[in-house]
Specification:
The complex is a heterodimer of chains A (327) and B (243).
Chain A (H helix, E strand, L loop, with lengths): L1 H28 L3 H26 L8 H18 L3 H23 L5 H19 L10 E2 L17 H22 L2 H11 L1 H6 L4 H27 L1 E2 L1 H5 L1 H14 L6 H20 L6 H16 L6 H12 L1
Antiparallel strand pairs in A: 1-2
Helix pairs in contact in A: 1-6, 2-6, 2-9, 2-11, 2-12, 3-4, 3-9, 4-9, 6-9, 7-9, 11-12, 12-13
Chain B lengths: L4 E10 L2 E11 L4 E5 L6 H9 L6 E6 L2 E2 L5 H7 L1 E3 L12 H9 L6 H14 L15 H14 L4 E5 L7 H16 L3 E5 L3 H4 L5 E6 L2 E6 L1 H6 L1 H8 L1 H4 L3
Parallel strand pairs in B: 3-8, 3-9, 6-7, 7-8
Antiparallel strand pairs in B: 1-2, 1-4, 4-5, 9-10
Helix pairs in contact in B: 3-4, 3-5, 4-5
The chains are: A mainly alpha (327), B alpha/beta (243).
Chain lengths: 327, 243
């Protein structure tokens, strides 16, 4: 029993390493910039969804306001860079820390709310954040901030010609988010989070401090999402509130995890691998008519997958395993 | 030696309803104590006060020589109070072993050690064969057992059992009784709330009968069942005549 568990965890790690290795080789064969762009977005949303999954999937606190942390990462990095000349690498970390602190500050009152009320609170808070940034003159208000790109520089993390550095950073981010999840899954925190999600009262009776567990999950989740926001800002080289803090980001973080399998290790990656290319492809092949046919097809596909596999895409792989367990 | 658990003049009011009034009980180390009484006697309320789900309106609760009246449930667990729930509260999306690991993590922060401890507890409670099954796939009797296993994994000094034997078939109840004995033999004090007198009475060293929020009678099970006050509380005054 003990051995099976260790074997499964090692197997997950090996699969992840192989996949990351294959992904790292992809640019050798894929020269098309459009396709590279899709890969970048897929990796980024996989990373974001993986981070969202820590709070909402494992700990069960469904947030539809993670765009706030994404935006905070983006804005912290770019404000520090354009106003004070702080390199984006430091801005990225600062953004992560600030987002984690804000997540805990918000968690303090809101983790007392349960279920739907918590979800509503997250949506409202993210909207307030968006409005604040839209009206904050010093931070560029609705006009946003343009980052001047002067040639290729790893130091400033900006590149004119090639998309490859962005691709590799997205891959690192995705691997990091996955690895953090993998590592936390078999830790005291991971167990506490799942217990809190399933039954907070029982968890409390077993010595789990429910409130602290939620705070921990929120901090880790927000930190990683903010790193993603910082990265996205560098990638776009231009940010405004709507393009880094809009509600669609909250949805695009939640959807891959939900589609792939919420609260599972592989769900977010799997979900993003299907969802993001699907978004881009429907948009470029059947979009553009102005009639929103792409969105209808896209929405229809999501509904179809959810109906066919309510446990998420990962259930395709775990079905045989479940059978083995009940034998 | 002081008692392991003591409630001193505990009151609990819910609005106008008095669920516990001036309840003072004590549980000594190594005892199996039964907390019984008819429906609405205040057993579950007292039980929750001891477990730390809510603080009493008045009075104090002492555990292992320490005032724990205001201490939240999680902290009481760390001090050595383990409990089960009347309505089972398994972690449904987790496997049986993972359920128990949550409990084991209170005393063991190293995962490998916690996992081994959890497996030992599963063997002790006879659930080892079901270790890798999802908790949601267990049958009711197994879920009750899992509740006990999870609480035992926290290595409690006092185990609070809330109607773990109720609603089981006679055979299942007998295995349950055997498990409770085994728990006590392992040096753990047990306070159990029960409904079914005939199962509990042979098991417990001492019975405390609650009625209408107050301690009605307290003593050896054989004496308690003959007490006219107890009979009248359970069956009505008519049956108490001539007892």
């Amino acid at each position: 029993m003990d051995k099976n568990f260790a074997v499964r965890r090692r197997r997950d790690l090996i699969i992840a390493a192989v996949l990351a290795g294959l992904a790292a080789l992809a640019p050798l064969f894929i020269k098309d910039v459009y396709v590279q762009n899709i890969l970048i977005l897929t990796l980024m949303y996989a990373a974001m969804s993986q981070s969202w999954n820590i709070l909402s999937g494992y700990c069960g606190q469904i947030s539809l306001g993670h765009a706030l942390y994404f935006g905070i990462g983006a804005y912290t990095t770019e404000l520090l860079f354009t106003k004070f000349g702080v390199l984006p690498w430091f801005g990225m970390l600062a953004g992560g820390v600030i987002a984690a602190l804000i997540a805990m500050g918000l968690g303090y009152p809101f983790f007392r709310l349960r279920g739907h009320y918590f979800v509503i609170a997250t949506i409202v808070i993210a909207e307030i954040g968006l409005l604040l940034f839209q009206n904050w003159e010093w931070a560029g208000a609705a006009m946003g901030i343009t980052i001047q790109v002067r040639g290729d520089s790893w130091l400033k993390f900006q590149f004119m010609r090639s998309k490859l550095p962005y691709f590799y950073f997205a891959l690192v981010l995705c691997s990091l988010a996955w690895f953090v999840t993998w590592w936390l899954e078999d830790s005291k925190w991971g167990f506490w989070w799942r217990a809190v999600k399933d039954n907070p009262e029982a968890a409390e009776s077993l010595g789990v401090v429910v409130f602290n567990s939620k705070m921990g999950a929120a901090a880790v989740s927000a930190f990683l999402v903010a790193i993603g926001g910082a990265y996205y800002a560098q990638f776009l080289a231009y940010i405004d509130p709507e393009s880094v803090m809009g509600f669609q980001f909250s949805l695009l973080m939640a959807l891959p995890a939900v589609l792939g399998g919420i609260g599972t290790l592989w769900g977010p990656v799997l979900g993003a691998a299907i969802l993001i290319p699907m978004t881009e492809l429907t948009r470029s092949y059947i979009g553009g008519s102005g009639r929103g046919v792409d969105l209808i097809v896209y929405g229809g596909l999501i509904v179809a997958i959810s109906l066919a596999l309510p446990q998420g895409l990962v259930s395709l792989f775990s079905r045989s395993k479940a059978k083995g367990a009940s034998r | 030696m002081t008692a392991l658990l003591e409630t001193r003049g505990v009151w609990q009011r819910f609005g106008g309803l008095v669920a516990n009034s001036d309840v003072s009980i004590s549980v000594g180390r190594g005892e199996i104590v039964g907390l019984i009484g008819p429906n609405g006697a205040g057993k579950s309320t007292l039980f929750n006060l001891i477990a730390g789900v809510l603080p009493p309106t008045q009075g104090s609760i002492w555990f292992d020589g320490e005032d724990v009246t205001k201490m939240p449930a999680a902290e009481r667990c760390q001090r050595g109070v383990g409990r089960t729930f009347q309505v089972v509260k398994s972690f449904e999306t987790m496997t049986v072993i993972d359920n128990v690991i949550v409990g084991a993590l209170v005393r063991n922060t190293v995962m490998r050690v916690a996992r081994r401890k959890a497996y030992e507890v599963l063997e002790f409670t006879g659930l080892a064969a079901r270790a890798d099954v999802l908790a949601s796939d267990l049958v009711p009797a197994e879920k009750r057992r899992l509740e006990v296993a999870r609480a035992l994994a926290t290595e409690p000094k006092l185990l609070l059992l809330d109607e773990v034997l109720t609603g089981l078939t006679p055979t299942e109840a007998q295995t349950g009784v055997a498990l409770v004995r085994k728990v006590r033999d392992a040096g753990i004090t047990v306070l159990m709330v029960e409904h079914v007198m005939e199962i509990v009475m042979p098991l417990v060293d001492r019975a405390i009968v609650l009625d209408l929020g107050k301690v009605l009678v307290e003593g050896k099970p054989t004496e308690v069942v003959r007490d006219p006050k107890v009979i009248s509380a359970y069956l009505g005054d008519r049956h108490a005549v001539g007892a």
